[in-house]
Amino acid sequence: MRKLVTIIVGMLAAPLLAQTTPAPTATPAPPTPGLPLVAIQTTAGRIVVEADTRRAPITAGNFLRYVDMKKLDGVTFYRVVKAADRFGFVQFGVNGDPAKVLPPIKHEPTTLTGIQHLDGVLSTPRLRPGSARGDFTIMLGDQRPSMDADPSKPGDNLGYAAFGRVVEGMDVVLKIFDAPDNPTGSIRGAFRGEVPVAPVRIVSARRVKSP
Length: 211
Description:
Elements: E1 37-42, E2 45-51, H1 57-68, E3 76-84, E4 87-93, H2 110-113, E5 121-124, E6 135-140, E7 161-168, H3 170-178, E8 181-182, E9 195-196, E10 202-208
């Protein structure tokens, strides 16, 4: 699978986005009864996400561990990939911080979970399968097939591990996506041109009850 850049240990890559068709603005479907909800309060507004612990128990459980241990408090949306208008993804997480990172988790491909990389879906970037830790992406637009697993392809064809979706606050995600990037900015040499000028910070990430 192609990666945007070659990066140092602890930083995670995602593939080039194959499609160029922007997604229409849509209202997320209501939360699924019984699935955990997390309210992410950011400096740009509130985002509520659903962690699908039924279909992706390992990946969703990993995200919830970072939430419950408050390891996402204070982190930023440090990367924004813009392939087209409202088409790409935003990335947030511990970004290799040794004080926050937890052990890597087993990879759950989309062929196993059935969760595809659609608009508003959360996923976990990685290097090799089984290396994902505490960094997460939110899709803007339909990222199939570039981020889904594809057994018909040679080599590493396991894609990325989708595990949840935004149920409230896609307008906030779009605000983060649309903010200016630094055309020459990078993080330790990686993600050149994809680093926001003023990264949005997560004030807190906490479980909330379903409405």
